[in-house]
Amino acid sequence: MGAIQARMEAALARLLPDAHSVPARLHEAMRYATLMGGKRVRPLLGFAAGALSGAPAERVEVVAAAVELIHAYSLVHDDMPCMDNDVLRRGKPTVHLEFDQATALLVGDALQALAFQILGEHRLAESDATQLEMVKTLALAAGSRGMAGGQAIDLEATGKLLQLPELEAMHIRKTGALIRAAVVLGASCGAALERGESEHLDRYAKCVGLAFQVVDDVLDAGASTAMLGKTAGKDSKQRKPTYVSALGAPRARALAEELRGEAHAALDGFGERARRLHEVADFIVLRKF
């Protein structure tokens, strides 16, 4: 994990615009939003899936960076006053506080555009058709049928108590779509998988994506701000529907363990090639921050 996190920090620093190039304030804010923070779970999943398909690390590094840029943009916009109005992210002031709201809006726009730029600038797959499909995968994960759509559902659901199927439908989009994209894109950098293998891998990605959100909800309800690096307990204060509000913390933890078991089971046919994917699933569910 440490090696991949360090590699991604270097890759993102290289792929982001220089902080002193014009417009310097925007570029400084883009780097502020992206560098020196986060667990890099999506890149970890991308590299783990790449190990499954024998993908060159140089390719996986680029697709993992693209996914991470989309994730960083989503956090910048999510923290703004018109959304969650948060003041802390990754242990430091949110972008709209460190800079200003207009700059934060432009940071998100620019990070999203950069993600697709780097997908087009590098050879990432064995065929052009596969690479084009990879661009489509990330676009779907980020758009109205994925992350942005999930956020819209989340905003509409504020103050409501959602049932488990409704929560799952929301988080398959809001959190799960980008996590699933990280897995699919990492694997796509290597040898093509058979249809059955792709389906099992997607099942794994769906399970870990939902498990990540369940654990996030449990931690938000019980961990400290200092441990999380973001404002603890904000979901409850903002009357957001969560797995904890729907199930209670003990049942939510049990659900995370159930999803972890399903994720492991989805990898049964892959053998040693899936070792890293198994390990990341464990990390996602057992993490304390």
Kindly describe this structure.
The chain is mainly alpha-helical and 289 residues long. The chain has a single domain, classed as Farnesyl Diphosphate Synthase, CATH 1.10.600.10. Helix content is 71%, strand content 1%. It has a two-stranded antiparallel sheet with strand order 1-2. Strand 1 (88-89) and strand 2 (92-93) form a beta hairpin. Helix 3 runs antiparallel to helix 4, helix 4 runs antiparallel to helix 10 (176-188) and helix 11 (195-222) runs antiparallel to helix 15. The model has no long low-confidence stretch (mean pLDDT 94).
Find the CATH superfamily. Farnesyl Diphosphate Synthase
Major β-sheet, in short? Answer: 2 strands, antiparallel
- Multimerization state: single chain
Give a count of the beta strands, DSSP E runs of length 2 or more.
Answer: 2
CATH topology: Farnesyl Diphosphate Synthase
* Head-to-tail CA distance between termini: 15 Å
Strand order of the main beta sheet, please? 1-2
On the 0 to 100 scale, the average pLDDT is 94
CATH class: Mainly Alpha
Give the overall shape: globular
Strand content: under 5%
How many whole angstroms does the radius of gyration measure?
18 Å
CATH architecture: Orthogonal Bundle
Which sequence of SSEs, written as H and E, runs from N to C? HHHHEEHHHHHHHHHHHH
Features:
single chain, 289 residues, mainly alpha, two-stranded antiparallel sheet, 71% helix
Layout of SSEs?
Blueprint: H1 2-15, H2 24-34, H3 41-53, H4 57-78, E1 88-89, E2 92-93, H5 95-98, H6 101-121, H7 128-142, H8 147-157, H9 164-174, H10 176-188, H11 195-222, H12 225-228, H13 234-237, H14 243-247, H15 249-266, H16 275-286
Antiparallel strand pairs: 1-2
Helix pairs in contact: 1-4, 2-6, 3-4, 3-10, 3-16, 4-6, 4-10, 7-10, 8-9, 10-11, 11-15, 11-16, 15-16
